[in-house]
Amino acid sequence: MNMKKYHLLLLLVFPLFLTSCFKDELPNTECDVLDVWIDGDQYKECFYQPETDMRFNKISSTENHIVFTVRSMLSLPEMPISFNLTPGATIQPANGSLQNFKEHPVVYTVTSEDGAWHREYIVEFREPDLPKLHYDFEDVELKKEKVSFLLFDVDVSYYSWFEMDDNGGRQDIWSTGNPGFGMGNSNANEKDYPTIPDENGYEGKCVKLVTRDAGPFGKPMNKPIAAGNLFLGKFDVDKVMTNALATTRMGIRAPFTEEPIKVTGFYKYKPGAEYINEKSEVVPGKVDEGHIYSVVYRNKDENGDPVMLDGSDVLSSKYVVKKAEMSKLPPTDEWTPFEMFFEGEELDEQLLDSRGYNFALVFSSSKDGAKFLGAIGSTLYIDKVTVVMEKDD
Hints:
393 residues
């Protein structure tokens, strides 16, 4: 070959050879997250739709804020976030490591293979923005009235709660057993009733529920205690002497047209010293418990007649379609958040639209208070209660 042509060929090919070598050997300068996901079947229950909510593919090169939507932040466990990165890149905290997202988002730093470039990604967990009902128990008044007891009219003075609607209208939707307590304890100060307001709430006022001695007429009737209670519904004072469980007419017309998901709020609880039975005998080893629950039930039967549940059947009736209940309410001296999820059938849209369901929400200082069993002195504080619902599509 002509030497001039050979030298010319080398001049043309050699730069291409060098370029190829540099491409293969130079470290990558990219530091991007391409995909993000959560591994583990045990985490599926944290999401409404785990098939889609636990993974994000093809993250945009301009995106650095990744948000996972979960059912609850309160019960959120530590989560292992996995990342697919650009070739050679590394990430801190470590890929797939367990991280706590409850209190705040976690910032991940991706560093390029050549170490010269890095990029921060914010990973956050949130509950969805859903319709809500809020009860803060700021609206309370002292009621004075006469009630019939045996052959006499008795003057009673007790606290009662109400709500104000968006138009400034009053809604008398809350009731307590205070009128029944007053019948047998007409000389009691209003602050000594089972259900009273307290100024030291989580924010502003709260409700204080205390299991009291039922008074001189309770013990002979095997009804020695009067639990503090607050519930959506009506108290039927006329049935105190004949059918005590029927005094609590549980529920109001459901104030929503969506599917309720859960009830949240804040509480404090301290059980009384001695749990007693209907004969006022101490039950050794038995510890009182507070009780919080909610039900949604059909308000008409098969014949179209009205249905109103009471303390005897509100948790067991065949008309109950959804129920949420705190299985345990651990004692605590500090304001502590609680949440309880509704379980049961999906609600019928037509019945929802036509207000065919009643909604009950109940708080009690003694779980067996409806049976007049519990510990005198058991105290439950309640504040800032929220009912969370699905969006109405």
